[in-house]
Protein backbone atom coordinates (compact mmCIF):
# COMPACT_ATOMS: atom_id res chain seq x y z
CA UNK A 1 0.00 0.00 0.00
CA UNK A 2 1.07 3.58 -0.59
CA UNK A 3 2.35 5.50 2.42
CA UNK A 4 -0.02 7.90 4.15
CA UNK A 5 1.23 11.49 4.65
CA UNK A 6 -0.48 14.10 6.84
CA UNK A 7 -0.07 17.71 5.61
CA UNK A 8 -0.46 20.60 8.07
CA UNK A 9 -0.58 24.18 6.74
CA UNK A 10 -2.96 27.12 7.03
CA UNK A 11 -2.29 28.21 3.42
CA UNK A 12 -5.04 26.50 1.39
CA UNK A 13 -3.24 27.07 -1.93
CA UNK A 14 -0.03 25.49 -0.68
CA UNK A 15 -1.98 22.59 0.86
CA UNK A 16 -3.65 21.93 -2.48
CA UNK A 17 -0.36 22.15 -4.38
CA UNK A 18 1.45 19.82 -1.98
CA UNK A 19 -1.44 17.36 -1.96
CA UNK A 20 -1.50 17.24 -5.76
CA UNK A 21 2.28 16.78 -5.97
CA UNK A 22 2.39 14.03 -3.34
CA UNK A 23 -0.66 12.24 -4.74
CA UNK A 24 0.97 12.27 -8.17
CA UNK A 25 4.05 10.72 -6.55
CA UNK A 26 1.88 7.83 -5.34
CA UNK A 27 1.25 8.82 -1.73
CA UNK A 28 -2.06 8.88 0.12
CA UNK A 29 -2.56 12.38 1.52
CA UNK A 30 -4.67 13.92 4.31
CA UNK A 31 -4.68 17.69 4.87
CA UNK A 32 -5.51 19.87 7.89
CA UNK A 33 -5.01 23.57 8.60
CA UNK A 34 -4.00 23.69 12.29
CA UNK A 35 -1.97 21.88 14.92
CA UNK A 36 -5.06 20.92 16.94
CA UNK A 37 -6.73 19.49 13.83
CA UNK A 38 -3.54 17.53 13.15
CA UNK A 39 -3.67 15.96 16.61
CA UNK A 40 -7.30 15.00 16.04
CA UNK A 41 -6.43 13.30 12.77
CA UNK A 42 -3.51 11.51 14.40
CA UNK A 43 -5.89 10.15 17.03
CA UNK A 44 -8.12 8.81 14.27
CA UNK A 45 -5.48 7.35 11.98
CA UNK A 46 -1.72 7.29 12.31
CA UNK A 47 0.08 8.28 9.07
CA UNK A 48 3.61 7.25 8.12
CA UNK A 49 4.88 10.85 7.96
CA UNK A 50 3.81 14.38 8.98
CA UNK A 51 4.74 17.36 6.82
CA UNK A 52 3.96 20.61 8.68
CA UNK A 53 4.46 24.34 8.32
CA UNK A 54 6.17 25.99 11.29
CA UNK A 55 3.80 28.97 11.37
CA UNK A 56 0.30 27.74 12.22
CA UNK A 57 -2.73 29.71 13.49
CA UNK A 58 -2.93 28.01 16.91
CA UNK A 59 0.52 26.58 17.72
CA UNK A 60 3.81 26.44 15.88
CA UNK A 61 5.23 23.41 14.14
CA UNK A 62 7.78 22.74 16.88
CA UNK A 63 4.98 22.53 19.46
CA UNK A 64 3.14 20.09 17.18
CA UNK A 65 6.31 18.05 16.76
CA UNK A 66 6.70 17.89 20.55
CA UNK A 67 3.15 16.55 20.94
CA UNK A 68 3.70 13.99 18.18
CA UNK A 69 7.08 12.93 19.50
CA UNK A 70 5.70 12.41 23.03
CA UNK A 71 3.12 9.87 21.82
CA UNK A 72 4.64 8.53 18.58
CA UNK A 73 8.42 8.84 18.92
CA UNK A 74 9.18 6.91 15.71
CA UNK A 75 6.83 8.93 13.48
CA UNK A 76 8.98 11.16 11.22
CA UNK A 77 8.14 14.88 10.98
CA UNK A 78 9.37 17.30 8.31
CA UNK A 79 8.92 21.04 8.93
CA UNK A 80 8.50 23.76 6.31
CA UNK A 81 8.95 27.47 6.87
CA UNK A 82 9.33 30.72 4.98
CA UNK A 83 11.29 32.12 7.90
CA UNK A 84 13.95 29.48 8.30
CA UNK A 85 17.28 30.25 9.90
CA UNK A 86 20.29 28.10 10.66
CA UNK A 87 19.69 28.26 14.47
CA UNK A 88 16.05 27.20 13.95
CA UNK A 89 17.17 24.28 11.80
CA UNK A 90 19.77 23.20 14.34
CA UNK A 91 17.26 23.46 17.21
CA UNK A 92 14.64 21.48 15.32
CA UNK A 93 16.93 18.65 14.25
CA UNK A 94 18.43 18.48 17.74
CA UNK A 95 14.95 17.77 19.11
CA UNK A 96 14.44 14.96 16.63
CA UNK A 97 12.68 16.59 13.65
CA UNK A 98 13.67 14.54 10.61
CA UNK A 99 13.90 17.41 8.14
CA UNK A 100 13.64 21.18 7.90
CA UNK A 101 13.08 22.92 4.55
CA UNK A 102 12.67 26.58 3.77
CA UNK A 103 10.09 28.01 1.38
CA UNK A 104 10.25 28.17 -1.55
CA UNK A 105 11.59 24.66 -1.63
CA UNK A 106 12.64 22.45 -4.51
CA UNK A 107 9.96 19.83 -5.17
CA UNK A 108 12.54 17.19 -6.04
CA UNK A 109 14.41 17.80 -2.78
CA UNK A 110 11.17 17.52 -0.81
CA UNK A 111 10.29 14.18 -2.43
CA UNK A 112 13.80 12.91 -1.72
CA UNK A 113 13.51 13.99 1.92
CA UNK A 114 10.12 12.26 2.23
CA UNK A 115 11.47 9.04 0.70
CA UNK A 116 14.41 9.09 3.16
CA UNK A 117 12.09 9.65 6.12
CA UNK A 118 9.74 6.85 5.09
CA UNK A 119 12.68 4.47 4.57
CA UNK A 120 13.71 4.76 8.22
CA UNK A 121 10.42 5.83 9.82
CA UNK A 122 7.61 3.92 11.48
CA UNK A 123 6.09 1.10 9.42
CA UNK A 124 2.52 1.34 8.27
CA UNK A 125 0.39 0.33 11.24
CA UNK A 126 -3.23 0.89 10.38
CA UNK A 127 -3.70 0.30 6.68
CA UNK A 128 -6.06 -2.39 5.46
CA UNK A 129 -4.95 -5.11 3.11
CA UNK A 130 -6.71 -5.61 -0.19
CA UNK A 131 -8.20 -8.91 1.04
CA UNK A 132 -9.86 -7.32 4.06
CA UNK A 133 -13.19 -6.58 2.35
CA UNK A 134 -14.83 -9.39 4.36
CA UNK A 135 -14.42 -7.31 7.56
CA UNK A 136 -14.85 -3.87 6.00
CA UNK A 137 -17.75 -2.99 8.31
CA UNK A 138 -15.68 -3.66 11.43
CA UNK A 139 -13.75 -0.47 12.13
CA UNK A 140 -10.79 -1.22 14.39
CA UNK A 141 -7.08 -0.83 14.98
CA UNK A 142 -7.13 -2.67 18.34
CA UNK A 143 -4.65 -5.51 18.78
CA UNK A 144 -7.34 -7.34 20.79
CA UNK A 145 -9.72 -7.10 17.84
CA UNK A 146 -6.96 -8.05 15.39
CA UNK A 147 -6.50 -11.34 17.24
CA UNK A 148 -10.26 -11.95 17.28
CA UNK A 149 -10.58 -11.22 13.55
CA UNK A 150 -7.70 -13.58 12.79
CA UNK A 151 -9.59 -16.33 14.64
CA UNK A 152 -12.82 -15.40 12.84
CA UNK A 153 -11.10 -15.55 9.46
CA UNK A 154 -9.67 -18.96 10.30
CA UNK A 155 -12.99 -20.46 11.43
CA UNK A 156 -14.86 -18.89 8.50
CA UNK A 157 -13.27 -21.40 6.14
CA UNK A 158 -14.93 -24.31 7.93
CA UNK A 159 -18.61 -25.10 8.35
CA UNK A 160 -18.38 -25.27 12.15
CA UNK A 161 -21.11 -23.63 14.22
CA UNK A 162 -19.85 -20.47 15.93
CA UNK A 163 -21.11 -18.98 19.19
CA UNK A 164 -20.25 -15.28 19.53
CA UNK A 165 -20.26 -14.04 23.11
CA UNK A 166 -20.17 -10.42 24.16
CA UNK A 167 -22.06 -7.58 25.80
CA UNK A 168 -25.10 -5.97 24.22
CA UNK A 169 -24.12 -3.41 21.61
CA UNK A 170 -20.61 -4.76 21.06
CA UNK A 171 -21.17 -5.67 17.40
CA UNK A 172 -21.95 -9.41 17.45
CA UNK A 173 -24.06 -9.31 14.28
CA UNK A 174 -21.33 -7.44 12.37
CA UNK A 175 -18.85 -10.14 13.35
CA UNK A 176 -21.30 -12.82 12.21
CA UNK A 177 -21.69 -11.04 8.86
CA UNK A 178 -17.92 -10.84 8.51
CA UNK A 179 -17.56 -14.59 9.13
CA UNK A 180 -20.19 -15.25 6.47
CA UNK A 181 -18.43 -12.97 3.96
CA UNK A 182 -15.11 -14.74 4.55
CA UNK A 183 -16.69 -18.19 4.15
CA UNK A 184 -17.28 -20.33 1.04
CA UNK A 185 -20.98 -19.43 1.50
CA UNK A 186 -20.36 -15.71 0.91
CA UNK A 187 -22.41 -15.57 -2.30
CA UNK A 188 -25.42 -17.18 -0.60
CA UNK A 189 -27.88 -15.51 1.82
CA UNK A 190 -27.01 -14.22 5.28
CA UNK A 191 -30.17 -14.16 7.40
CA UNK A 192 -30.35 -12.76 10.95
CA UNK A 193 -33.06 -13.04 13.60
CA UNK A 194 -33.19 -11.83 17.21
CA UNK A 195 -34.64 -14.68 19.26
CA UNK A 196 -35.53 -12.35 22.13
CA UNK A 197 -37.44 -9.84 20.00
CA UNK A 198 -40.09 -12.19 18.55
CA UNK A 199 -42.95 -13.63 20.66
CA UNK A 200 -42.61 -17.34 21.33
CA UNK A 201 -45.75 -18.25 19.40
CA UNK A 202 -44.41 -16.54 16.26
CA UNK A 203 -40.74 -17.53 16.51
CA UNK A 204 -41.34 -21.15 15.50
CA UNK A 205 -43.17 -20.08 12.36
CA UNK A 206 -40.46 -17.49 11.57
CA UNK A 207 -37.68 -20.03 11.89
CA UNK A 208 -39.24 -23.15 10.39
CA UNK A 209 -42.13 -21.79 8.29
CA UNK A 210 -45.74 -22.94 8.18
CA UNK A 211 -48.26 -24.28 5.70
CA UNK A 212 -51.53 -22.67 4.79
CA UNK A 213 -54.27 -23.34 7.34
CA UNK A 214 -51.93 -24.69 10.01
CA UNK A 215 -53.20 -22.12 12.50
CA UNK A 216 -55.51 -19.11 12.66
CA UNK A 217 -54.10 -16.43 10.39
CA UNK A 218 -51.99 -18.82 8.27
CA UNK A 219 -53.62 -17.78 5.00
CA UNK A 220 -50.70 -18.90 2.81
CA UNK A 221 -47.61 -21.08 2.91
CA UNK A 222 -44.66 -19.34 4.58
CA UNK A 223 -40.99 -20.15 4.04
CA UNK A 224 -39.12 -20.03 7.31
CA UNK A 225 -35.75 -18.37 7.83
CA UNK A 226 -33.94 -21.71 7.65
CA UNK A 227 -35.24 -22.18 4.11
CA UNK A 228 -34.52 -18.56 3.23
CA UNK A 229 -30.90 -19.03 4.35
CA UNK A 230 -30.47 -22.32 2.48
CA UNK A 231 -26.93 -22.56 1.15
CA UNK A 232 -25.85 -19.63 3.29
CA UNK A 233 -25.67 -18.67 6.97
CA UNK A 234 -28.35 -18.17 9.61
CA UNK A 235 -27.51 -15.92 12.55
CA UNK A 236 -29.53 -16.48 15.73
CA UNK A 237 -28.94 -13.46 17.94
CA UNK A 238 -29.68 -13.68 21.68
CA UNK A 239 -29.96 -17.46 21.45
CA UNK A 240 -30.03 -17.54 25.26
CA UNK A 241 -33.55 -16.07 25.14
CA UNK A 242 -34.97 -18.90 23.01
CA UNK A 243 -37.81 -20.74 24.84
CA UNK A 244 -37.06 -24.34 25.90
CA UNK A 245 -39.73 -25.83 23.63
CA UNK A 246 -38.12 -24.25 20.60
CA UNK A 247 -34.65 -25.29 21.75
CA UNK A 248 -35.77 -28.92 21.36
CA UNK A 249 -36.99 -28.28 17.81
CA UNK A 250 -33.84 -26.35 16.88
CA UNK A 251 -31.71 -29.25 18.12
CA UNK A 252 -33.69 -31.64 15.92
CA UNK A 253 -33.13 -29.39 12.89
CA UNK A 254 -29.38 -29.34 13.52
CA UNK A 255 -29.25 -33.12 13.98
CA UNK A 256 -31.40 -34.02 10.97
CA UNK A 257 -30.35 -31.14 8.66
CA UNK A 258 -34.00 -30.63 7.76
CA UNK A 259 -36.95 -28.52 8.90
CA UNK A 260 -40.61 -29.40 9.25
CA UNK A 261 -42.79 -26.28 8.79
CA UNK A 262 -45.68 -25.89 11.26
CA UNK A 263 -48.55 -28.02 9.96
CA UNK A 264 -46.41 -29.87 7.38
CA UNK A 265 -46.26 -33.67 7.15
CA UNK A 266 -42.84 -33.96 5.50
CA UNK A 267 -39.46 -32.45 6.45
CA UNK A 268 -37.55 -30.24 4.01
CA UNK A 269 -33.77 -30.75 3.66
CA UNK A 270 -31.68 -27.65 4.39
CA UNK A 271 -28.01 -26.71 4.07
CA UNK A 272 -27.33 -23.89 6.52
CA UNK A 273 -24.27 -22.80 8.49
CA UNK A 274 -25.42 -21.71 11.95
CA UNK A 275 -23.96 -18.69 13.73
CA UNK A 276 -25.36 -17.64 17.09
CA UNK A 277 -24.72 -15.01 19.74
CA UNK A 278 -25.62 -14.18 23.31
CA UNK A 279 -24.78 -11.74 26.08
CA UNK A 280 -26.18 -14.17 28.68
CA UNK A 281 -24.23 -16.62 30.83
CA UNK A 282 -25.33 -19.84 29.12
CA UNK A 283 -23.52 -22.03 31.65
CA UNK A 284 -25.63 -20.49 34.42
CA UNK A 285 -28.75 -20.86 32.29
CA UNK A 286 -27.97 -24.57 31.81
CA UNK A 287 -27.52 -25.10 35.55
CA UNK A 288 -30.91 -23.45 36.12
CA UNK A 289 -32.60 -25.63 33.49
CA UNK A 290 -33.22 -22.69 31.16
CA UNK A 291 -30.92 -23.82 28.35
CA UNK A 292 -30.39 -27.32 26.98
CA UNK A 293 -26.90 -28.74 27.41
CA UNK A 294 -27.07 -30.81 24.19
CA UNK A 295 -28.02 -27.71 22.17
CA UNK A 296 -25.24 -25.73 23.84
CA UNK A 297 -22.61 -28.15 22.58
CA UNK A 298 -24.13 -28.15 19.10
CA UNK A 299 -23.92 -24.35 18.93
CA UNK A 300 -20.63 -23.97 20.77
CA UNK A 301 -18.26 -25.80 18.41
CA UNK A 302 -16.18 -22.61 18.26
CA UNK A 303 -16.57 -19.69 20.67
CA UNK A 304 -15.46 -16.15 19.83
CA UNK A 305 -15.41 -13.53 22.59
CA UNK A 306 -16.11 -9.99 21.37
CA UNK A 307 -14.47 -7.49 23.73
CA UNK A 308 -16.47 -4.55 25.11
CA UNK A 309 -15.56 -1.08 23.87
CA UNK A 310 -13.90 -0.35 27.23
CA UNK A 311 -11.26 -2.98 26.35
CA UNK A 312 -10.54 -1.51 22.92
CA UNK A 313 -10.37 2.21 23.67
CA UNK A 314 -7.96 2.87 20.83
CA UNK A 315 -10.93 2.17 18.53
CA UNK A 316 -13.13 4.90 20.05
CA UNK A 317 -11.66 7.84 18.05
CA UNK A 318 -11.65 5.74 14.89
CA UNK A 319 -15.28 4.69 15.34
CA UNK A 320 -16.36 8.20 16.35
CA UNK A 321 -14.86 9.67 13.18
CA UNK A 322 -16.38 6.88 11.08
CA UNK A 323 -19.85 7.50 12.52
CA UNK A 324 -19.44 11.27 12.20
CA UNK A 325 -18.71 10.98 8.48
CA UNK A 326 -21.84 8.86 7.97
CA UNK A 327 -24.04 11.13 10.09
CA UNK A 328 -22.75 14.30 8.44
CA UNK A 329 -24.27 13.00 5.22
CA UNK A 330 -27.50 12.06 6.99
CA UNK A 331 -27.92 15.51 8.54
CA UNK A 332 -26.47 17.30 5.50
CA UNK A 333 -23.83 19.11 7.53
CA UNK A 334 -20.14 19.78 7.12
CA UNK A 335 -18.68 18.01 10.15
CA UNK A 336 -14.91 17.68 10.02
CA UNK A 337 -14.07 16.09 13.36
CA UNK A 338 -13.87 16.49 17.12
CA UNK A 339 -11.90 19.00 19.17
CA UNK A 340 -9.01 17.21 20.95
CA UNK A 341 -10.62 17.55 24.40
CA UNK A 342 -13.93 16.26 22.98
CA UNK A 343 -12.14 13.26 21.50
CA UNK A 344 -10.42 12.64 24.83
CA UNK A 345 -13.80 12.70 26.60
CA UNK A 346 -15.11 10.09 24.18
CA UNK A 347 -12.03 7.89 24.56
CA UNK A 348 -12.21 7.89 28.36
CA UNK A 349 -15.99 7.44 28.78
CA UNK A 350 -17.12 4.10 30.34
CA UNK A 351 -19.36 2.99 27.40
CA UNK A 352 -21.65 0.49 29.16
CA UNK A 353 -23.72 0.39 25.97
CA UNK A 354 -20.67 -0.29 23.81
CA UNK A 355 -20.62 0.62 20.10
CA UNK A 356 -24.38 1.12 19.96
CA UNK A 357 -24.11 3.75 22.70
CA UNK A 358 -21.14 5.45 20.98
CA UNK A 359 -23.15 5.70 17.76
CA UNK A 360 -26.07 7.25 19.65
CA UNK A 361 -23.77 9.83 21.26
CA UNK A 362 -22.19 10.75 17.91
CA UNK A 363 -25.64 11.02 16.34
CA UNK A 364 -26.78 13.40 19.06
CA UNK A 365 -23.76 15.69 18.67
CA UNK A 366 -24.15 15.55 14.88
CA UNK A 367 -27.77 16.64 15.10
CA UNK A 368 -26.96 19.53 17.47
CA UNK A 369 -23.65 20.69 15.99
CA UNK A 370 -23.51 24.26 14.66
CA UNK A 371 -19.84 24.24 13.61
CA UNK A 372 -17.64 21.83 11.63
CA UNK A 373 -15.58 20.88 14.70
CA UNK A 374 -17.52 19.12 17.48
CA UNK A 375 -16.75 20.84 20.84
CA UNK A 376 -16.30 19.24 24.25
CA UNK A 377 -19.53 20.79 25.57
CA UNK A 378 -21.69 18.89 23.07
CA UNK A 379 -19.94 15.61 23.79
CA UNK A 380 -20.33 16.07 27.56
CA UNK A 381 -24.03 16.81 27.14
CA UNK A 382 -24.56 13.70 25.02
CA UNK A 383 -22.58 11.55 27.45
CA UNK A 384 -24.66 12.77 30.38
CA UNK A 385 -27.86 11.88 28.53
CA UNK A 386 -26.47 8.47 27.50
CA UNK A 387 -25.32 7.73 31.04
CA UNK A 388 -28.91 7.76 32.27
CA UNK A 389 -29.57 4.36 30.75
CA UNK A 390 -28.75 2.35 27.64
CA UNK A 391 -30.93 -0.69 26.98
CA UNK A 392 -31.08 -3.02 24.02
CA UNK A 393 -34.50 -3.95 22.65
CA UNK A 394 -34.34 -7.31 24.43
CA UNK A 395 -33.38 -5.71 27.76
CA UNK A 396 -36.13 -3.09 27.44
CA UNK A 397 -38.68 -5.83 26.64
CA UNK A 398 -37.61 -7.86 29.68
CA UNK A 399 -37.82 -4.83 31.94
CA UNK A 400 -41.30 -3.99 30.64
CA UNK A 401 -42.44 -7.58 31.22
CA UNK A 402 -41.17 -7.54 34.80
CA UNK A 403 -42.84 -4.21 35.60
CA UNK A 404 -46.06 -5.31 33.92
CA UNK A 405 -46.20 -8.60 35.83
CA UNK A 406 -45.50 -6.91 39.16
CA UNK A 407 -48.32 -4.41 38.56
CA UNK A 408 -50.76 -7.20 37.64
CA UNK A 409 -49.90 -9.28 40.70
CA UNK A 410 -50.25 -6.27 42.97
CA UNK A 411 -53.60 -5.46 41.40
CA UNK A 412 -54.92 -9.02 41.78
CA UNK A 413 -53.40 -9.59 45.23
CA UNK A 414 -51.24 -12.41 43.86
CA UNK A 415 -54.16 -14.30 42.26
CA UNK A 416 -52.58 -15.91 39.16
CA UNK A 417 -55.90 -16.84 37.52
CA UNK A 418 -57.12 -13.23 37.73
CA UNK A 419 -53.77 -11.83 36.57
CA UNK A 420 -53.64 -14.21 33.60
CA UNK A 421 -57.21 -13.26 32.66
CA UNK A 422 -56.33 -9.55 32.72
CA UNK A 423 -53.23 -10.22 30.61
CA UNK A 424 -55.33 -12.33 28.20
CA UNK A 425 -52.94 -15.27 28.59
CA UNK A 426 -53.59 -18.83 29.72
CA UNK A 427 -52.39 -19.79 33.19
CA UNK A 428 -49.62 -22.09 31.92
CA UNK A 429 -48.09 -19.34 29.82
CA UNK A 430 -48.50 -16.85 32.65
CA UNK A 431 -46.77 -19.17 35.13
CA UNK A 432 -43.93 -19.52 32.60
CA UNK A 433 -43.57 -15.73 32.52
CA UNK A 434 -43.50 -15.58 36.31
CA UNK A 435 -40.83 -18.29 36.40
CA UNK A 436 -38.79 -16.44 33.77
CA UNK A 437 -38.69 -13.35 36.00
CA UNK A 438 -38.36 -15.33 39.25
CA UNK A 439 -41.64 -13.95 40.63
CA UNK A 440 -43.61 -15.77 43.32
CA UNK A 441 -47.36 -14.94 43.50
CA UNK A 442 -47.27 -15.50 47.27
CA UNK A 443 -45.16 -12.38 47.70
CA UNK A 444 -48.11 -10.27 46.55
CA UNK A 445 -50.84 -11.76 48.72
CA UNK A 446 -52.09 -9.58 51.51
CA UNK A 447 -51.54 -10.83 55.05
CA UNK A 448 -54.80 -11.70 56.81
CA UNK A 449 -55.81 -9.09 59.38
CA UNK A 450 -54.56 -9.75 62.88
CA UNK A 451 -57.38 -10.14 65.45
CA UNK A 452 -57.39 -7.83 68.44
Give your account of this protein's structure.
GO terms for molecular function: ATP binding; DNA binding. InterPro entries: AAA+_ATPase, AAA_lid_NorR, CheY-like_superfamily, Homeodomain-like_sf, P-loop_NTPase, Sig_transdc_resp-reg_receiver, Sigma_54_int, Sigma_54_int_dom_ATP-bd_1. The protein contains 19 helices and 16 strands. Helix 13 (315-330) crosses helix 14 (340-348). The termini are far apart. It has four domains: 4-120, Rossmann fold; 133-305, P-loop containing nucleotide triphosphate hydrolases (Rossmann fold), CATH 3.40.50.300; 311-388, Helicase, Ruva Protein, domain 3; 393-444. It is elongated. Strands 2-1-3-4-5 form a five-stranded parallel beta sheet, sandwiched between helices. It is 47% helix and 13% strand.
Properties at a glance:
Rossmann fold, 4 domains, five-stranded parallel β-sheet, 19 helices, 16 strands
Topology:
Elements: E1 4-8, H1 12-24, E2 28-32, H2 35-44, E3 49-53, H3 61-71, E4 77-81, H4 86-95, E5 99-102, H5 107-120, H6 143-156, E6 162-165, H7 172-181, E7 190-194, H8 200-208, E8 209-210, E9 222-223, H9 225-228, E10 233-237, H10 244-256, E11 258-259, E12 268-269, E13 273-278, H11 282-287, H12 293-299, E14 302-305, H13 315-330, E15 337-338, H14 340-348, H15 354-368, E16 373-374, H16 376-388, H17 393-411, H18 416-423, H19 427-436
Parallel strand pairs: 1-2, 1-3, 3-4, 4-5, 6-13, 6-14, 7-10, 10-13, 15-16
Antiparallel strand pairs: 8-9, 11-12
Helix pairs in contact: 2-3, 6-7, 13-14, 13-15, 14-16, 15-16, 17-18, 18-19
Domain Sigma-54 factor interaction: 138-367
Keywords: ATP-binding, DNA-binding, Nucleotide-binding, Phosphoprotein, Transcription, Transcription regulation
Domain Response regulatory: 4-118
